[in-house]
Amino acid sequence: MARIAIEYCTQCRWLLRAGWVAQELLSTFGTDLDEVALKPGTGGVFRITVDDEQIWDRKADEGFPDVARLKQRVRDRIDPDRDLGHIDRG
């Protein structure tokens, strides 16, 4: 089982965005995840890790993740053979 951490900037008030991303990941991967943690940060951070491996960084990836692409990155890390349905066909 995987642990996902979403680090978000409290100064930028990105808690709602982080919560929405967490909800989307939990809706898709459910019991395949051990935990989805929201981690407050500062300085414009919006970073997502799976088992301490960074899969998204707002600065490095030049913006916020498209949820479909993010789900693909999570899937590729935790269950590469999993079919994400319409996300994979879009």
- For the residues shown, what is the average pLDDT? 94
| Major sheet attributes | 4 strands, mixed
Please compute the radius of gyration using only Cα atoms. Answer: 13 Å
Low-confidence runs? none
Specify the helix fraction band: 25-40%
Task: Outline the structure in words.
The chain is of the alpha+beta class and 90 residues long. The chain contains three helices and four strands; from the N terminus they run βαβββαα. The protein has helices spanning 15-29, 67-78, 86-89; strands at residues 2-9, 33-41, 46-50, 53-57. It has a four-stranded mixed beta sheet, covered by helices on one side. Strand 3 and strand 4 form a beta hairpin. Helix 1 (15-29) crosses helix 2 (67-78).
Condensed summary:
With about 90 residues, the chain is α+β, with helices and mostly antiparallel strands. Helix content is about 35%, strand content about 30%. Helix 1 links the parallel strand 1 (about 1-10) and strand 2 (about 35-40).
Question: Which helices and strands, and how do they pair?
Answer:
Layout: E1 2-9, H1 15-29, E2 33-41, E3 46-50, E4 53-57, H2 67-78, H3 86-89
Parallel strand pairs: 1-2
Antiparallel strand pairs: 1-3, 3-4
Helix pairs in contact: 1-2
Question: Keywords, please?
Answer:
single chain, 90 residues, alpha+beta, four-stranded mixed β-sheet, globular
